[in-house]
Amino acid sequence: MNQAHYTSQASSPSTGESLAPAVSNSETGKRVFLLSLLLSTWIPMAFFIFIGQSGVVSFSLEQIKIVLLFLGGAHVQATLFFYTDRDFRQQISENRIRYVYLPIILIIGSGLIFAIASTTIQAYLFLFYWAWQAYHYGRQNVGIYSFTSLAQRKGPPQKSERLALELATYCGILGTFKIMGTGVVPVYLQGFFDVLYRLGYFSYLALFIFGIYACVKNIRHTTLTKTLFFLTLLFFFYPIYLSNNILVAFSSYAIAHGLQYIIFMMVVSVNAERETVRQTIRNVVKLILLTLLVGFAFYRVADLKGLEFIRQQALLARSLDFLVGAVFGATMAHFVIDAGAWRLSKAAPRAYMVKRFGFILDARDPVEVRPDPTVSPYQRADHLPHG
Question: What are phi and psi of 248, to 5 degrees?
């Protein structure tokens, strides 16, 4: 594709106006977007690895940690923006199973499991959730690398690059069960999870060698920016093998994932309606309020368990258990909703995202994607993962 593909429709050859300003704006937008994604990945990973490994504690670091943890979780609520967007509501009406019925089933079903099921059943729900979550993170990484490759005018990622990022996801899943499941799952599973953890660790070491091979093999199809993204995303899950400290082994990349997603949704909101500055501001404010206010409610709901009057009332305690479970279900609903929203192999989602990411995507770009079950730019999602 040529550079003019990324220009605004308002500046076309048929108008007789120069394309130079639009091209310049497009190039600036790409640089800002890609730099934001890199920093949103590097900063939380470096921060949590540092405080987790060093043990350094101070008031300022603690406040930064709280803010990052909140934003990392609140990205789920940013998905609600789609339901408020006039352009997207047409897709909702055309696919109510994905956007209405499945989310409701996940939210209510998860809530009921937390409210009435045994702790063993709840533990297996956690395992399913953690595996799906890690897979979800990995698929977003593949999507981010696809966006980067398109922004650099290098076409879709090479097969070896995509394979390396997909294998990194599975290495992350293998380590997730031990790090997240210790103390929650039945004792008889912990030995098995130890084996999976060691398998994931040694597989990751081998994967680094394969990743370097992929970089060298595809050197003609890459740029410095692409290489930085590839190595960053290849390393993404490795903190899970650096420490048993949850800040290092999970929060480091989980928060990075959340910040990445907020950046994508900020672009979606800014470019939702371009008629007036007021409409753009309204969309951005709407996204921020949904993310912060609903995110805060989700973030603090479990703290209500500490209230004495709730503990003393069986019905209130059971209702709160349902709410906590519903929050987990809402996160899984987020996986399903975004899987459809970012499914660029379909005409409607593709037209929607091309409009919002016109500085990177073009309606004529080929879509070389595979079925994936998560939110992740530039990919499909046809099925749910098996637990």
Answer: -80, -50
Question: What is the mean pLDDT of the segment spanning 152-180?
Answer: 93
The Cα 190–Cα 185 span in angstroms is 7
Contact 111, 348 (CB under 8 A): no
Residue type (1 letter), 133? Q
Within 10 Å of residue 101's Cβ, how many Cβ atoms?
Answer: 11
Region of poorest pLDDT, from 56-70, 212-226, 248-262: 56-70
Distance CA 326, CA 108 (A): 6
Residues written for the chain = 387
CA distance linking residue 372 with residue 52, whole number of Å: 32
Residue indicated by tokens 């990194």: 168
Burial class of 160 by CB neighbour count within 10 A (0 to 12, 13 to 18, 19+): middle
pTM: 0.84
Burial of residue 157 (CB within 10 Å: 0-12, 13-18, 19+) is buried
